[in-house]
Write a structure and sequence with these properties.
By secondary structure, this protein is α/β, with parallel strands linked by helices. The protein is 33% helix and 24% strand.
């Protein structure tokens, strides 16, 4: 049975840097408070006029260059995002058209911080069934235009940044290569722990001046609840995925964690005795780019020579919903 391997990775982060000190000028916060709780020093925001589709295109072109394939070989586009350019249609049609891939299969995945992880699992399932051989997976997010920059919104606003990442994945028949095990979970009773209440079809009309005045259009988070679940669920899922693959956590050569909060990742690594040299974090300079975090970490890890052919690589993420999971792959 074929499995999914990554043949190209690319990323795009906009040039505009917003530091913790910059945010402290417009809300009641400071560099020490933010870094102590999240590990974040700065994040990047898009310039006026740039879209999520634009960022995805730039990341895709970089991934295609690394993959060394003709883009005509791509049979499907999977787009993970919580911040589409428009309410509908989703991002996949726009990205497909931008890249000139018209005619191939397209689908959006709306799974917030685990969106890219779930997209990888879906791509692997398509490949294993023989439906497609070459797939483009993109995670692209613009948070900066939808954040509350008052002191009321500081707990959430300081976390997020803009960016995009792409994998080009392909079927492999090599024994023991590609995705070896997948572990995915969710618990919808906590959907209000990290959410945007409005606008939504539950309201009639979907958006009102009252909602705007009450700032219900901005992300809201119960930080301690999210943190406590993340530090429990990540280690559980990692152990379960390793068990499915028949390997020990210590056998994994490199771990790619979703970049939601550096302290969450540090806790998970400590709980599982994962040494620092087996991970790479970029949340310090990019913030949480949601669906773009996994591919951006991989792109940088490849550039630094931290991920090499034959290595056992783990991916793990936790996010709104709640959703969480882990994937193990032989690179």
């Amino acid at each position: 049975m074929p499995s999914m391997k990554v043949i190209g990775a690319g990323m795009y982060i906009p040039d505009r840097v917003v530091t913790n000190d910059d945010l402290s000028k417009i809300m009641d916060t400071n560099d020490e408070w933010i870094e102590q709780r999240t590990g974040i020093k700065e994040r990047h925001y898009i310039p006026e006029g740039m879209t999520g589709t634009d960022m995805a295109e730039k990341a895709a072109l970089a991934a295609l260059a690394q993959a060394k394939i003709d883009k005509k070989e791509i049979e499907a586009v999977i787009a993970a995002t919580l911040s589409p350019d428009h309410t509908f249609p989703g991002m996949a049609p726009l990205i497909q058209d931008k890249l000139g891939l018209n005619g191939c299969a397209i689908v959006d995945i709306r799974n917030q911080c685990t969106g890219f992880l779930y997209s990888m699992a879906i791509a692997d399932a398509w490949i294993k069934t023989g439906l497609y051989k070459t797939i483009l997976i993109t995670g692209t997010e613009i948070h900066s235009t939808a954040l509350d920059f008052s002191t009321r919104g500081r707990d959430v606003t300081v976390i997020f940044g803009d960016g995009a990442g792409v994998f080009i994945v392909q079927a492999t028949e090599e024994e023991g290569k590609g995705i070896l095990a997948t572990d995915l979970h969710g618990d919808g009773k906590y959907f209000k722990a990290l959410w945007v209440e409005a606008e939504g079809s539950v309201f009639h009309p979907r958006l009102t001046h009252k909602m705007l005045d009450e700032r219900r259009i901005y992300p809201q988070m119960k930080g301690q609840l999210v943190f406590s679940h993340a530090i429990r669920r990540l280690p559980e899922s990692i152990k379960a995925c390793c068990d499915k693959a028949g390997v020990a956590v210590a056998d994994v050569d490199f771990w790619v964690f979703h970049q939601a909060n550096l302290r969450i990742n540090e806790f998970a690594c400590q709980a599982l005795n994962i040494p620092p040299e087996k991970t790479l974090h970029n949340i310090q300079k990019f913030g949480n780019t949601t669906a773009a975090t996994l591919p951006t970490v991989v792109t940088e890890a490849l550039e630094k020579g931290l991920i090499k052919p034959g290595m056992l690589v783990g991916f793990s993420a936790f996010g709104a919903g709640f959703t969480w999971g882990t994937i193990l792959m032989r690179w």
